[in-house]
Write a structure and sequence with these properties.
By secondary structure, the protein is α/β, with parallel strands linked by helices. The protein has one domain: Barwin-like endoglucanases (Beta Barrel). Helices cover about 25% and strands about 30% of the residues. The protein is built from 5 helices and 6 strands. A hairpin with a 2-residue loop joins strand 3 and strand 4.
Length: about 130
């Protein structure tokens, strides 16, 4: 099953706390996930901690599933960072910041594992 979702991104306290150590596991744990409400995870047939593939017109990324019951159905959140950047528009509209809200996305469960930050960055260099 593929879930059509409205993808947003933003800062989190955990993501911000680990900005100076982006190659460490704590930063990976703080950023390499996608929050969905429990109903959406159930529709996908996945549980918290399972892998999700998030696709937009700008790219795709594999992240872990995380439950956030405060999210309405169809709303997906990935914290700011390399994993979110893989699926957000690179167009900064002249202001230096990409659009972090309202990106149409397709999300599905996957057996793939999320890449650590160094491995994710290598995929950009090889593209």
């Amino acid at each position: 099953m593929i879930l059509k979702a409205n993808l947003i991104s933003g800062r989190t306290a955990q993501q911000g706390a680990h900005l100076e150590a982006k190659t460490y596991r704590a930063y990976f744990d703080a950023c390499a996930y996608c929050e969905l409400n429990l109903s959406d995870l159930e529709k996908l047939g996945v549980s918290e901690g399972d892998s999700l593939k998030v696709k937009t017109e700008f790219g795709e990324v594999v992240v872990f599933a995380k439950v956030k019951d405060g999210n309405p159905e169809g709303l997906a959140f990935i914290p700011m960072g390399p994993w979110a950047n893989a699926v957000l528009s690179p167009d900064t509209h002249g202001c230096g910041m990409p659009g972090f809200k309202g990106v149409p996305a397709e999300i599905e469960g996957t057996e793939e594992e999320p890449l650590d930050m160094k491995s994710l960055m290598r995929t950009y260099r090889e593209a």
